[in-house]
Amino acid sequence: MSVQTTRRTLLAAALAAPALLPQGARAQAAWPAGQPITLIIPFAPGGPTDAVGRMLAEAMSRDLGVNVVAQNVGGAGGTIGVNRVAQARPDGHTILLHNIGMSTAPTLYRRLPYNPLTAFETLGLVTATPMVWLTRPDFPAANFGEMIRLIREGGERINLGNAGLGSASQLCGTLLQASLGTRFTTVSFAGSGPIYPELMANRLDIYCDQTTSAIPFIQANQIKAMAVTTAEPLPAVPGVPTAIQGGLPGFEVAIWHGLYAPAGTPKPVQDRLNQALRAALADPRVVERMTGLGSPPEPVSRQNGEVHRAHLAAEIERWRPILQAAGQFAD
Ligand code: MLT
Predict the structure, then answer these.
(1) How many separate domains does the chain show?
(2) What does R_g of the chain's alpha carbons equal in angstroms?
(3) What is the pLDDT of residue 18?
(4) Do residues 90 and 141 share a domain?
(5) What burial letters (b/e) apply to 32-49, b meaning 16+ CB within 10 Å?
(6) How much is the pLDDT for 194?
(7) What is the CATH number of the domain that holds 197?
(8) Could you give the CA distance from residue 195 to residue 197 in angstroms, rounded to a whole number?
């Protein structure tokens, strides 16, 4: 039996039968045993994954009685942070929040160092977030139709920000390029957070981001919101039409997020983490804040590891042909 297997077996036994241990040892052995949990956010601070991750970390801390500490590990469209968790000890003290990129990276990266379906335990779906097309304040378009016209005319003179190959923003940009048959110039960052100063300073032209980080900038009139990517207009972004209404039939995309632990995390620990996730997503403060940012928690039936795993597998298959047709890959 390997050292790691022995460790996992002992941990599972401690969780399953704490009553067999003497009083003091019981408190020590039962996970999380007073030890903090690191929640890896695979993007820079200040973006949508960060916004959701920090809310979750705070609410899960309350339920678990230990600190859940959010740590940003950005780069390569989220794959660096994801790989950090794939390599972590499966002891429940390192977990991951990631988005739809978990399902697009296997097609986009020819040499991805992890397999999303075997390197992780899926702990439950968290939220599905709409996106919104944004422009810099001085971009000379009054509405989405004009934005489309200007980017068709501008082609590669138009700068589009994104959070790297495999990010949600990259996916949204790729879908727009495919719909229009146009190529823009893409500038990649380690997450959405660092893109906003560039957009507000008029150094980037356009960006497609999730409402969870875009709404505060829209409300402060620091950027222009052109269209949301939902089928119907979104109450959280009032007065902004859908991309479909703005002239792009079928342009609908929502960015799902899930919570993960490294493969081999003992089942009782997975179950406790799922319980903490569900408690966090039922917390009225979290529900109110997420709803106000356009991204209410997933229904309880989807805050579930098995549903999450099936969704991930289906999404990998769903995006593969679309991304292969778009033809942008990392080697
Ligand atoms: C993405 O584009 O995947 C995210 O917006 C990046 C982030 O959360 O910062």
Answers:
(1) 2
(2) 21
(3) 42
(4) no
(5) beeeebbbbbbbbbbbbb
(6) 97
(7) 3.40.190.10
(8) 6
How buried is residue 19: exposed, middle or buried, by Cβ count under 10 Å (0-12/13-18/19+)?
exposed
**Cα separation, 85 vs 69, whole angstroms:** 14
Residue 13: left (phi > 0), alpha (psi -120 to 50), or beta? alpha
Token duo for residue 31 = 């996970």
Do both 93 and 179 map to the same domain? no
Residue 49 CA to ligand 1 centre (angstroms): 6
Q: Please tell me if the CB atom of residue 49 comes closer than 6 angstroms to any atom of ligand 1.
A: yes
Pairing of strands 94-99, 254-262: antiparallel
- CB-CB contact of 248 with 273 (8 Å): no
pTM score: 0.90
Q: Is the distance from the beta carbon of residue 134 to the nearest atom of ligand 1 less than 6 Å?
A: no
Question: Does a structural domain hold residue 80?
Answer: yes
Q: Is the domain of 266 the same as that of 192?
A: no
Here the tokens at position 222 are 């620091």
DSSP bridge pairs for 97 = 259
Q: Which amino acid is at 259?
A: L
Please check whether residues 136 and 223 belong to one and the same domain.
Answer: yes
Which atom of ligand 1 sits closest to the CA of residue 99?
3
pLDDT at 29: 60
Domain membership flag for residue 218: yes
| 236 neighbors 254 (Cβ within 8 angstroms) | no
Burial class (CB in 10 A: 0-12, 13-18, 19+), 121: buried
Does residue 294 lie within any of the structural domains? Answer: yes
Task: State which residues form the domain around 276.
Answer: 37-128+254-326
* Contact between residue 70 and residue 99 where contact means Cβ atoms under 8 Å apart: no
pLDDT at residue 242, rounded to an integer: 97
pLDDT < 70 stretches in the chain: 1-29, 331
DSSP reduced 3-state for 36: coil
Residue nearest to atom 8 of ligand 1 (CA): 49
Task: Indicate if 305 and 274 belong to the same structural domain.
Answer: yes
69 within some domain: yes
| Residue 112 · residue 165 · CB < 8 Å | no
Query: Does the C-beta of 48 come closer than 6 Å to ligand 1?
Result: yes
How far apart CA 73 and CA 96 sit, in angstroms, is: 10
